């Protein structure tokens, strides 16, 4: 079941509900490590990365149950080992999020170095430097980060670059540190705010989340609690593009509209009609071909890198030329060669994609290379004439819950084999 075949040319029309956010649930699951007693996490998306994080916590000794809604009850008291092995980290980089919580609660951690990945080098030096500033003794050898500390000590930590999981690792660790921690140049992504909401519900004292300065007053203990995960803004953006690229219309319930300003602005520029309520968004393309939109990715609230590949597909069939500049990851255009195999006219120069919109893409066999690249190929397949088979589709299951079921419910013709 590692490929899907899309019969293109169907218009996307209808209503779906957004799932919980992958990039919120992963740090939240890691953060369960700093709370005593049980936490109950709801609105958990059914994703491969969530299963991997559950397996990682379970092999450390966490007591974990997943109910029929995929909600998770978890207790991380008495973890018998504090190791994130290479086999897990290589399949999911977000395993690095176990580092801060483990050293904060258990005084030790052994986490495999993630190494590079398809979209770029992605070092974790800033995670390590932050924890060292808080007193953790860290050695990197044999491919592992070995961290130890009696109790972390709060400090002023200036992040050299805005890093999402780096900010999250330090934030979680600081909740159990002695004294106050200030994270400067912190990531302001909505998922960092959702994590802080969970930590505060556990008893943590945090202010400034959602700004570039986060203050944390460390506590002796935190306690497990209930938390409902925020909606996935990238899933919402991807489904809006699915409607836009096919000239269709879609309503998405459980939307977090305030977190999607940059994506909404580009969809409107592309010719979509967008209306919102407090927790839903409706896009109507009225059968029109999209207009080209220039994109420059950057940390929140600018245009998210995780939506870049999807807009590449949209621009590929737009009525005119566009530029996409990727500023976060050095090798995040691997979908381009595959889109070109479907008849797109995209030329890469450094970190820029120059796109000349074509009237029609044509179905072809293509291969997914990472999570968002796979989404971009599915979107292109929806708009293409004829059949597109996307190989190595397993990447998509890391970040999209029941993608083909949701798209088929909206009128697409997709089968997995
Ligand atoms: C997170 C998201 C990912 C998203 C990315 C950027 C999760 C689980 N993943 O990834 O979906 O694409 O944010 O929005 O939330 N960097 C360093 N040193 C470090 C850490 C990062 O140089 O120690 C660099 C990276 O190489 C990259 C940039 O900082 O160029 C931003 O990366 P970062 O925000 O850390 O991405 P992730 O947290 O890995």
Protein architecture, described:
By secondary structure, the protein is α/β, with parallel strands linked by helices. It is 31% helix and 25% strand. It contains 13 helices and 26 strands. The protein has a 4-stranded mixed β-sheet with strand order 24-25-1-26. A 4-stranded mixed β-sheet has the order 2-17-19-18, covered by helices on one side. It is elongated. The termini are close together. 52% of the residues are buried. The protein binds uridine-diphosphate-N-acetylglucosamine. Residues 23, 26, 94, 120-127, 161, 163-166, 191, 305-306, 328-329 line the site of uridine-diphosphate-N-acetylglucosamine.
- Helix percentage range: 25-40%
Which ligands occur here?
uridine-diphosphate-N-acetylglucosamine
The major β-sheet equals: 4 strands, mixed
- Helical segment count: 13
Gyration radius from CA atoms, angstroms? 21 Å
User: In one word, what is the shape?
Assistant: elongated
Instruction: Provide the low-confidence segments as ranges.
Output: none
Overall pLDDT: 96
> How does the helix and strand content classify structurally?
alpha/beta
Across the major sheet, the strand order is 24-25-1-26
* Gap between N and C termini: 4 Å
Strand content: 25-35%
Total number of beta strands? 26
